[in-house]
Every structure is written in C-alpha cells, then in structure tokens.
Amino acid sequence: MTSVNPDCDAPLLLAIESSCDETAAAVVTQNRTVLSNVVASQTELHERFGGVVPEIASRAHVERILPVIDQALGEANAQLSDLAGISVVTEPGLVGSLLVGLTAAKTLAMVLDLPLVAVNHMEAHLYACRLAEGRDVFPAVGFVVSGGHSNLYDCRSAVEYELLGTTIDDAAGEAFDKVAAILGLSYPGGPSIAKAAEQGDATSFSFPRTFLKDNQLRFSFSGLKTAVLYEVNGTPGSHREVPPLTPQRVANIAASFQAAAVDVLVGKCQQAIEQIGRDRLCVGGGVAANHLLRSELQQMAERQGVELLIAPQEYCTDNAAMAGLGWELLERGQTVALDFDVTPGLVRKR
Ligand code: KG4
Ligand code: ZN
C-alpha cells in the first residue's frame, strides 16, 4: 500500500521510549522532521503513591506500547513499509519499563528485517534541542535536568558525550517531587511547586545553595530537601513552635525552594561553560520545563555571551521524538543485534 504522506518518499525512523512512566513512540524523517510524537502518560496510575511504582509502570507499558506505536504511525500517515529503522531507548531507566520498549522494537526489527539502534535516554534529552533547532547544535555544554538526573556533559557531537558532573544524592526533579510531597502538593512535584510559587515570596526563606560556590561540577539536593522538611515539621530536638501550613506559607516555601534550586542549576551551568570554554549550552529534561529556570538560564547565557538552546516544553519531559537521535547512530552504522540488552543504571561515557 502506498503512503499518503509526502515525506514518506524519504525513509522514516520509528522511535520508542519507555524508560520510566511514559509510553512513547514517534516517527522522524531522515532530515529530522518529527511527523508524530505520541506520549501516553501514566501519571494517574502513580500519583497516589507519590512516585513511580516500577511494577505498575511495566505492566502499563505492556498494555499501551502497541496502541501507542499504531497511533504514532497513523498520525504520521506512515506504513510499516516506510520504515528504514527502529530506534529504542535502552539505558538508563527502570529495568521492566525499558524491557517492554526494547522487546517491541526488537520484534518489529526482526519481523520487518530492519536495523535496530539503541539510544541513551540522557543523550536523547539533549538531542531534543537539535530536533527543535533543525540544525546541528553540537559541540556544546549539555545539561540534562530531570526526575532521575542532573548531569552536565561536554557534547563533542550528537554521539560523543563526556560526563562532566552529576548529583551526589537526589536529582533536581526528585527534589521538586519530594518537596511537593512535604508541602502536600500533587505529583509530579515540578509543575505543582512552580504553580504554588507564583503566589509566594521567594525571599521568605533562605534555603541552602549546596556547592554553589565550590567551583566543582557536582550537585546535592538532599540538604535543600531536608531544610524544607525541617521548616515544615520543625527541626528534631527543637522546641520552636511550627507555624500552621497555610496556603500562603506553602507558596512562600515553594517559591523559596524553587529559587534555591534554580540558583544552583544555573550557577553550575555557568561554571561548566567557563571551565569547558564552549559557546553553546543545550538543556533538556523534565525540569527544563520550569519557567524560572528557563528565564534565569537565558539571563546567564546573555551575560556569558553563549547561545542557549532549551528543549521546547513538549520535548522536555519524556517523549520518543528525542529518540530521533537514532538517525545519528543509523547513519554511522552503529546498529545493535537482536540479543542486545537494556542497561538500567548506566550513564554512558564515550
Ligand atoms: O525528563 P522527565 O520527564 O523524566 C525523567 O527522565 O526523569 O522528568 C520528570 C521530572 C519530574 O521530577 C518533574 O517533577 C519534573 O521533571 N518537572 C518539573 C517541571 N515539569 C516537570 N520540574 C520543575 N518545574 C517544572 N515545570
Ligand atoms: Zn527523562
């Protein structure tokens, strides 16, 4: 059957992402145009637990992966016969979740006799900047700020990354999620903290900016989270009376927490730029959707005279379009065999 999509003369890549709690598939042309980008969120399944429950996530992926792939092909007006390859995120992530995406990808690759490429989730978050920009954006300093990671990279090309620094404890998004839970705000915490902060005074509380001044490319958010916990519940051993958690107090704590987290995130990006000497900064990951972070990064980039590329909102949180990075691997012949496995904990250094 011939395809009705004018772009389908060009070969298409089917990209699959299921590393955590979003079941996602996208169709991307070789010139990196995203024809479809379908994301089935599982937020409603996990929110009452205040975080992702791995077993629930993998079962939901099993139910959703084929309809999501069908929908992505349909929205792209593409047929299976239009595909030139299958790209799938295989690291890092939840083992059961990753396995669902990889099994679907392998099955399609085997049945359709197509090449299979394996994509790193963090590298894909940064590739979202390349997709949105429509041109090569590397070399650059890369910053992935998400629920699982706060990683700074020296990106030499779309497929060559060196990890410059990471968190020694919680990731930035994890801190947003945990602080939201402490404040009784809904999951995921990032958007609800940002919303509450709109009504708050960011100077109400002076929360710690851990490592901000130490010039080493590393993050720590557990002290900030504990400072919020003690502000809300009282410091253990202290007899100071804790004020009631009124909506205004929640807003003030949320705004002060957000300001502290953003100060550190922006400060470390600036240090990475100064240390590596790149003139471009690419930012991706769920926390990059945060408006305060986006505007503070913009001001810092202007001061430093560097070009700032932040993934657009729809490519910040997990999606499969970003696994369009698979084209870079396909074009370089970096395919994987059908016995390829997932690597849940790996942060690849190339
Ligand atoms: O990239 P992502 O979808 O999944 C991971 O790879 O982890 O990121 C999810 C994280 C969550 O922690 C969520 O609270 C955070 O991104 N997030 C935000 C915002 N939107 C999502 N954090 C701060 N401000 C936001 N607007
Ligand atoms: Zn992610």
Describe the overall structure.
The protein is an alpha/beta fold and 350 residues long. The protein contains eleven helices and eleven strands. It has two domains: 12-134 and 316-331, Nucleotidyltransferase, domain 5 (2-Layer Sandwich); 140-313, Nucleotidyltransferase, domain 5, CATH 3.30.420.40. Helix 5 (172-182) packs parallel to helix 7 (222-233), helix 7 (222-233) packs antiparallel against helix 8 and helix 8 runs parallel beside helix 9. The longest helix is centred in the last third of the chain and has 30 residues, at 247-276. It is globular, with a radius of gyration of 21 Å. The termini are far apart. 53% of the residues are buried. Zinc ion is lined by residues 121, 125, 146, 285-286, 318.
